[in-house]
Amino acid sequence: MIKLCVFDFDSTLMDGETIDFLASDYGVGDEVKAITKRAMAGELDFYESLTHRVALLKGMPLSRVKEICSDLPEMNGARELILNLKERGIKVVVFSGGFKTGTNAMQERLGFDINFANILHHKDGILSGSVGGEMMFDFSKGEMLLRLQKILDISQSETMCVGDGANDISMFKHSRLNFAFCANEILKKQATYCIEKKDLREILKYI
């Protein structure tokens, strides 16, 4: 029986990539999107790609970041899937290689239990171009999942994960039921099921 469900955030629970929304607004969208695409396909080291992309946001007003992050689009079916999982007594957690400004705002809307993400460093209301946090590396999600399972006394066989990119591979390795959602080919190879329709309610057919 599943007791813990871990979601990726960008392009999984949220329809798009947070950093792409920020970069587009700040005028560096094309360069950041190109790096994001290669990172999610596993062509670039995640840490290096993340720090490179965030550096391009240096000088962006924090107020604008918060404004954009407060209005990120939900993925089709996200609300219904999370409600269904919580009605079953399943803990719903989000791991994001993105930013807490986005995941915290979405947690208030969707009601998942907790999220782990990174923080955009800022000073005097302006982004410095630096980033730090819990999800900085390609192995971060796997390590955090192991810690959660130990704290909650939940086994790998009682865990499911949903993601779309290369940095989700590490958490798939410690979960029995894994869904690659409209995912990159590198993650599909690690999945129990591949969902190609852009609607998270499709997962309900398998659980």
TrEMBL record:
Domain of life of the source: Bacteria
Pathway involvement of the protein, from the record: Amino-acid biosynthesis; L-serine biosynthesis; L-serine from 3-phospho-D-glycerate: step 3/3
Cofactor or coenzyme needed: Mg(2+)
EC class of the enzyme, as a word: hydrolase
Keyword Nucleus applies: no
Keyword Signal: no
Reaction catalysed by this enzyme: O-phospho-D-serine + H2O = D-serine + phosphate; O-phospho-L-serine + H2O = L-serine + phosphate
SUPFAM superfamilies (UniProt xref): HAD-like
Pfam families with a match to the protein in the record: Hydrolase (PF00702)
Coiled-coil boundaries: none
Single GO term (MF): hydrolase activity
EC numbers, comma separated: 3.1.3.3
Keywords: Amino-acid biosynthesis, Hydrolase, Magnesium, Metal-binding, Serine biosynthesis
Membership in a protein family: Belongs to the HAD-like hydrolase superfamily. SerB family.
Record protein name field: Phosphoserine phosphatase
Native species: Campylobacter gastrosuis
Lineage, highest ranks first: Bacteria, Pseudomonadati, Campylobacterota, Epsilonproteobacteria, Campylobacterales
